[in-house]
Specification:
GO molecular function, one term: transferase activity
Oligomer: single chain
Organism: Marinobacterium aestuarii
Distance between the termini: 29 Å
Order of helices and strands: HHH
Protein name: Acetyltransferase
Keywords: Transferase
Structural class: mainly alpha
Length: 66
């Protein structure tokens, strides 16, 4: 994989991870979880990301998968 493509993929993964974490934290906070619980939900959202779909798509425009 050429450097440019690897960098594009890395940025897509980074963006998707940030979006997943933000969405997970927000959903947990809305549900009434404390900050610590919301943080754990954010980390869990990152762990549940569909990396196969992200690699196949080649972008983070679709964000985290439900």
């Amino acid at each position: 994989m050429p450097h440019k493509d690897a960098l594009k993929l890395a940025r897509a993964v980074q963006t998707a991870a940030i979006l997943a974490a933000l969405q997970g934290y927000e959903n947990a906070a809305i549900s009434g979880l404390c900050r610590e619980g919301a943080w754990e939900a954010a980390i869990s959202a990152i762990r549940m990301m569909d990396l196969d779909a992200l690699v196949a798509d080649g972008s983070a425009k679709n964000g985290p998968q439900p």
